Each structure stands twice: as structure tokens, then as C-alpha cells.
User: Fold N-(5'-phosphoribosyl)anthranilate isomerase from Desulfosporosinus acidiphilus.
Amino acid sequence: MKIKLCGLFQNCDIDFVNEAKPDFIGFVFAKSRRQVSAEWAKAMRPKLSSVITPVGVFVNESVTTIAKLLNEGVIEMAQLHGNESEIYIRELKTRTKKPIIRAVQVISRADIEEKQDTVADFLLLDHGAGGTGESFDWSIVGQVKKPFFLAGGLKADNIEQAIRAAKPFAVDLSSGVETDGKKDRGKILEIVRRMRNE
Assistant:
């Protein structure tokens, strides 16, 4: 089971993930309380362990901006949370050849069905708008054609249940490894240790 820890925004967060070694981390470039600048991400990238894949999180960002960050190696994957069309995703893939994650706001099974045939490489199934710390009904996931990240309200006390119910390729945590809105080293180490022992 792969693990993604999203929303790193402080220098110490890099130290925490380097110690824990999740598979992926997320830099949020979209407007959010965890938003980071391209400059900050560029400065942090060389400090990130080579075994961790950095993912950029975007909402309706220009293809040019995302392609530049991917091609410069600041991030290795792009995660799209806006109204990006299939034409947009194709254009991005043409310009970078790097993997794309298409986020889906899951209210019902129909939301997943609608995005099954995307040209993106992965789906990310999240509760509503994302970043809410709320989870959705994992039992509606069913069969999904593409490998997917499961997000939304995941934390130490529900993650095993979520994995059993949805069978994702990876789990994606943000607020679940925070205390008072900041990444918590203890929670990060605990969740990665727990997942690695699965």
C-alpha cells in the first residue's frame, strides 16, 4: 500500500517526511491554508529524500505553469482538483510525459463512473471539495478501472477500515497527520509505521 502525505508547507515538514519515508508527498500550489510558492517548493526539493515522489496540487492552473514545474523536476506528478477538461489533461501530458492524478469529488458512485475514462494516469477520490478532513462512504467505491488514491478524513483510527472497504492503490492524508493545523512528526511516523506493517 502506497502512502501520500499532502500539504507540506513548513521547512520542518521536509525533515518529518524524510524520517518517515512515505511514497509521495504533496505541495499545494492552489489557494489553501497550506498553499506554497513555486520558490519555496524549488528550495525544498533538493532537501527531499530521493525515495519520495513530490506531487503538485493545482486548481485550474495554466498548463504552462504546471508543465514548467514538472519539466524542471520541482514536482514529478501533477494532481488536478479543478474543472480541468480532458483536452487540458491531454495537453499537459503532451508537454511533460509525467503522471497526472485527476481528483474526483465523491458524493455518489456516479461521480466515480463519470471520471473512469479520463486520460489521467490515476484518480484521487476525495470527499466533496477536498481538504475538509471529512470522509465519504467508502463502500460506494466498488470497481475502479484506474489505480486511485483514497483521500478525505483519513487518520490512524480509520485508515485500515478505509483500505479494506475501498482497496485503493494509495492513501492520501493531510489533516490526519496534523495537530493544530500543522504537520505532526509523531503522527507522520506513526501512520507510516502502521501502514508499512500492514
